[in-house]
Amino acid sequence: MGLDPHLYLYDTQAGWPVDHEHAQHSLGDPRFGDYLYQHSAWISDLFTFIVPLTGGSLDEEHSRGEGEDELFGREELERFLKELQAVPRPSNDKAFLAWNYDHLTLLVTAALSQPHLTLARAVY
Known about the structure:
The chain has 124 residues and is α+β, with helices and mostly antiparallel strands. Helices cover 40% and strands 17% of the residues. The chain has one domain (27-123). Strands 1, 2, 3, 4 and 5 form a five-stranded antiparallel sheet that branches.
């Protein structure tokens, strides 16, 4: 089994992740990743590490993933939310996709809610 991209909410002021259990999202399931990628080339590039992040990186001691986790800058967060909002929300009869879409949208929105919050992109 390979390594998959994950996002988690990170507090730059406190210097640690916010809520290890709920404030994270895995893009490891190809059904959800493929759904996003077919609607947004930018999101595809984001999770295939073509889009560089400008928020800096965490050293390996403070990273949750393999190597150094990368932090989103405000511009990437704003673009990510815009791209997500342009992706049609899956219908409720596709509960898995709808739940993942809603959860990811909430996570990005939370990261934009305070200037000291961001998302970290990790691989594990």
